[in-house]
Amino acid sequence: MRKLSIIIACLVAFSLVLAACGGKSNNTPTASQPASSKPADSSSASNPDPVVDPTQIKATISIYYPTPDQTEKRAIEDDKIKRFNAVYPNVEIVKSDWQYNPNEIGIKMGANEAPTLFNTYATEGKFLAEKGWAADITALFDSYDKKDQLNPILLNQFNIGGKIYAIPQQGYVVGTVVNTKMLKDKGVTVPPLDWTWDDVLTTAKAVADPAKGISGIAPMGKGNEAGWNWTNFLFEAGGEIQSDEGGKVTATFNSEAGLKALQFYQSLKDASVIPADWALGWGDAVGAFAQGRTAMVIAGPDGPLDQGLNQGGMGLEDLVVYPMPAASAGGKHTGVLGGDFLVINPNASPEEQQMAFQYAVFDYFSDAGLASLETNISAFKTDNKFFVPPVIQYFKQDSEYGAKVKAVYDKYDNVYQYSNELMGLLDGKPEAQFNTQDYYAAMTNVIQEVFSKKDVDLKAQLDAAAKTVQEKFFDQIKL
Fold first, then answer.
1. Domain boundary among 396, 415, 432
2. Is beta strand 167-173 parallel, antiparallel or unpaired with respect to 159-160?
3. Domain with 349 in it
4. Which SS3 state, helix, strand or coil, does residue 177 take?
5. Which residues contact 451 (CB under 8 A, 6 or more apart)?
6. Segment 387-390 long-range contacts (CB within 8 Å, at least 24 positions apart)
7. Is residue 159 part of a domain?
8. Whether 160 and 238 share a structural domain
9. CB burial string 275-305: b at 16+ within 10 A, e below
10. Tell me, what's the pLDDT at 14?
11. Residue 182 confidence (pLDDT)
């Protein structure tokens, strides 16, 4: 999903795996020094195999490339490709703008058309690992000298059974982006960041103007995004999507917490604070926000910020990122934790997988990466555009490198910076690892019933959705 997913979705030669099994070899490879093409043996100490220089490896890799509408991101990627080829001149980079889709990945893999390095999001870790559609990059990860500096919040999303299956890029905790200018223009009190469901409803009522097509808040109601949006309220009410006990996965979202979250959605609908045309997907809801047709939108914050600032003509002072509201005062501001990740195609050759990994981490923790970041922020400023960083970076926020990145941001007035108060309130909860998209789809049907009809039996709807998910999907899982 977005917008978060991701945050942020690789193997060396077979000989590296064999060498890793030895555990104490003095020839342990690093990211810039791959293993020999032969396994270690008793003669290796006196006759060591020559080390392969990765800059001499010849390979062709296809990489995830931003779609045509993302011109700024394409410019950033083009710059990276140029710098990568300056170091690895024998690697041909093929650009692929295929966007990961769980309904297409099987076809892509079967036809051998998936890129060498492709993007995915947090929910897909277990699915891709079990299907064999993501390379086990544990050996590459273990040989990466910066592995301990990667953000564990993201890295753990693709740590499946102690093996690593993806490289984190960036992440998010779902929040609520608020157009505070709309509130101020109508004389509506701007709520505190430590807000509640009641604050959301009160604010939405005060700013909504149905006669003019202005909604107070635009929860997504079309596609799996609808179930994804609602899950934040399930979490805030203390609920869970599923349990995994005794070797069985059980649907638990039809709980008292689930009912409470669905009742809140019904209250939004009854108060006429959602759009009259409520069947909005991610792009529809975020687009409505950027156009000033709704005051609040629920998403990974960077998407609405980018569109509001760079397409909607809004200023930094107009937009505030809020955490998800607590169900009641003193409660947690829990939001779905998601992210963007890069996965390496397991069908690629060992050399291709190694170079795909090198490409993925090429700018990580580097001065060149900082220089590239500053160049791109400056280019955004020249084009009168704002730079919106991810909420969660691939590195630890309080690390030395994190401080260097913050210093770059502080030099420019066109960078959106998340407040310390916001970061202190965010409470990220990972998405479920079993059939998450199927669960989202089932809940989307429930939400559409609530938004389109009167006197809906909420508990019956939840129970029916849980029964469908349980029998059709969870009962098929063998743990």
1. 432
2. unpaired
3. 1-37+50-171+338-432
4. strand
5. 221, 265, 269, 274, 278, 279
6. 387/412, 387/414, 387/415, 387/416, 388/302, 388/305, 388/306, 388/309, 388/415, 388/416, 389/302, 389/415, 389/416, 389/417, 390/7, 390/8, 390/170, 390/171, 390/172, 390/302
7. yes
8. no
9. beebebebbbbbbbbbebbbbbbbbbbbbbb
10. 30
11. 97
- Regarding whether 397 and 421 lie in a shared domain, the answer is yes
pLDDT at 433: 76
Both 423 and 394 in a single domain? yes
- Give yes or no: residues 136 and 146 share one domain: yes
Predicted TM-score (pTM) of the model is 0.78
Whether the Cβ atoms of residue 228 and residue 337 lie closer than 8 Å to each other: no
The yes-or-no verdict on residue 46 having pLDDT over 60 is no
- At 64-107, the pLDDT tens digits run 999 898 887 898 899 999 999 999 999 999 999 898 988 899 99
CATH code of the domain containing 343:
3.40.190.10
Assign 455 a pLDDT band (cuts: 50, 70, 90). very high
- What integer is the mean pLDDT of 234-263? 96
Residue 196 and residue 107 share a domain: no
Considering the domain architecture, whether residues 280 and 329 belong to the same structural domain is answered as: yes
CB-CB contact of 451 with 274 (8 Å): yes
**Total domains present in the chain:** 2
Please indicate, yes or no, whether residues 108 and 201 belong to a single structural domain of this protein: no
User: Is 432:439 a contact under the CB 8 Å cutoff?
Assistant: yes
pLDDT digits (tens, 9 = 90+) for 304-342: 999 999 999 999 999 999 999 999 999 999 999 988 999
Asked if residue 42 is part of any domain, the answer here is no
Phi first, then psi: give them for residue 436, nearest 5 degrees: -60, -45
Could you tell me if residue 44 is inside a domain? no
Q: Of 400, 193, 163, 413, which is closest to residue 301 (Cα–Cα)?
A: 193
What is the secondary structure of 301-354 as a DSSP string? THHHHHHHHHTS---GGGEEEEEPPBSSTT--EEEEEEEEEEEE-TTS-HHHHH
State whether 383 and 308 are in the same domain.
no
- Would you state the pLDDT for residue 122? 84
Reported as a pLDDT band with limits 50, 70 and 90, residue 52 is low
Residue with tokens 């039809």: 254
Contact predicate 129/160, CB 8 Å: yes
- The answer to whether residue 242 is domain-embedded is yes
